[in-house]
């Protein structure tokens, strides 16, 4: 009887529990109900897998169709599949980067609960620095030959990012925290510094005669951001050491950028052109070459000169020495971005539990910075081999008109000597 009463009591309790269970819980068919954890990292991984299958399928088919005519179909060999294959390949870089970052966040559980806002701000800002450094190194090796003023693009990005940082990272109407004051101050720095940089890059620049093509504002903003990060007070010595190191990296990157600007040759487009050459250029062809091997167009503006002779594999307007300091600046920004992403509170707490010393943690991300540059160089070299184009970015028509600079008094024969040589020979024969 006691056992029967016990079983009946359990049934009554189970029935009462079912009665108090809401409909969503009783009929729950979600993945979490069956123990399947769904995350953005997993969903994006599945999406990337099918993207890779689609791109591989299109690429293999188009490769085989070039050698086997019976496999060719007009639609698959048209521009739409070619563009789909091209843009899928380009989309893999940012999406794969996001997938890796989400994997680290999932592993360390760094964006849960109250830590979500801080983790997102560090990941987005650090990721922006990482991409900025990679794209600048790609610019230095002439991957973007149409970009002649990188400081103009940097000014726009910094201004927009400053407005976003100033207006979003603090929840207006609430109490100002220590972190809110620091991030909002950086937003104001980037907003007004970027606006001043845009004015320098515009046609209304009153300092054009002083600065020219050397806009120092992006480098100064990088240095000031590094100083602010190096003075970012933390509760423990471990995160303080991490913030101090990547702040120093940013300041060193800004110094290298200023040295690069100082070594950048002055543009020859602003140099005066003698009136005689303007008249000769109007009367003859659209492109002339003067005695200093500078090419002028029909409007009298110099297009290239001794200081701007394009060097293979280097962006126009840069010399090997200035590009070297630009590469150091880009590498420092890459390492700063990686350390910035890993410096939010939850991940630092995880690192303090497993890593014995902050120097070990910093060296890990330094290795990741070197690996990033190695992967970037492999991608750039593969793209250059596949395109098969010239590295200099100079049109063959203009480049072929350039001459080796030889002073006029040291030349063997000038054009005037060649034209008058027959006349002087006739006079010499008559005199004899």
UniProtKB/TrEMBL annotation:
Transmembrane domains' residue ranges: 44-62, 87-107, 119-140, 152-173, 323-341, 361-380
Keywords on record: Membrane, Transmembrane, Transmembrane helix
All copies of domain Protein YTP1-like C-terminal, residue ranges: 96-380
Disordered: annotated segments: 266-312
Presence of keyword Transmembrane helix: yes
InterPro entries, A to Z: YTP1_C
Pfam families, sorted: Ytp1
Keyword Transmembrane: yes
The protein's name in its UniProt record: Protein YTP1-like C-terminal domain-containing protein
């Amino acid at each position: 009887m006691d056992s029967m009463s016990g079983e009946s009591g359990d049934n009554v309790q189970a029935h009462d529990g079912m009665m108090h269970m809401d409909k969503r819980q009783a009929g729950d068919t979600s993945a979490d109900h069956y123990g399947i954890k769904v995350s953005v990292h997993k969903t994006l991984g599945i999406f990337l897998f099918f993207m890779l299958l689609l791109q591989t399928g299109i690429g293999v088919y188009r490769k085989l169709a070039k050698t086997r005519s019976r496999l060719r179909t007009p639609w698959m060999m048209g521009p739409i599949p070619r563009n789909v294959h091209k843009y899928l390949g380009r989309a893999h870089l940012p999406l794969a980067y996001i997938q890796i970052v989400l994997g680290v966040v999932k592993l360390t559980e760094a964006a849960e609960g109250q830590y979500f806002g801080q983790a997102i701000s560090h990941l987005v800002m650090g990721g922006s620095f990482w991409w900025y450094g990679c794209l600048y190194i790609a610019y230095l090796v002439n991957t973007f030959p149409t970009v002649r003023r990188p400081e103009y693009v940097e000014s726009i990005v910094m201004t927009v990012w400053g407005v976003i940082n100033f207006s979003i990272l603090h929840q207006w109407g609430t109490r100002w925290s220590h972190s809110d004051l620091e991030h909002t101050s950086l937003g104001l720095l980037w907003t007004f510094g970027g606006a001043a940089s845009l004015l320098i890059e515009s046609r209304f620049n009153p300092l054009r005669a002083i600065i020219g093509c050397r806009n120092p504002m992006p480098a100064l903003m990088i240095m000031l951001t590094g100083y602010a990060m190096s003075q970012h007070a933390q509760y423990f010595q471990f995160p303080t050491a991490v913030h101090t190191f990547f702040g120093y990296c940013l300041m060193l990157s800004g110094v290298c950028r200023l040295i690069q600007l100082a070594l950048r040759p002055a543009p020859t487009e602003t140099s005066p052109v003698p009136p005689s050459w303007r008249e000769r250029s109007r009367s003859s062809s659209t492109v002339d070459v003067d005695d200093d091997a500078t090419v002028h167009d029909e409007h009298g503006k110099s297009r290239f000169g001794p200081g701007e002779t394009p060097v293979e594999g280097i962006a126009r307007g840069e010399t090997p020495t200035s590009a070297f300091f630009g590469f150091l600046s880009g590498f420092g920004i890459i390492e700063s971005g990686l350390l910035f992403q890993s410096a939010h509170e939850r991940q630092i707490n995880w690192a303090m539990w497993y890593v014995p010393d902050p120097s070990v943690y910093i060296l890990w991300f330094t290795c990741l910075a070197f690996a990033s540059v190695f992967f970037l160089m492999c991608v750039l070299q593969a793209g250059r081999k596949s395109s098969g184009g010239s590295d200099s970015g100079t049109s063959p028509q203009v480049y072929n008109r350039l001459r080796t600079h030889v002073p006029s008094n040291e030349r063997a024969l000038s054009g005037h000597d060649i034209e008058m040589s027959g006349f002087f020979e006739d006079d010499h024969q008559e005199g004899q």
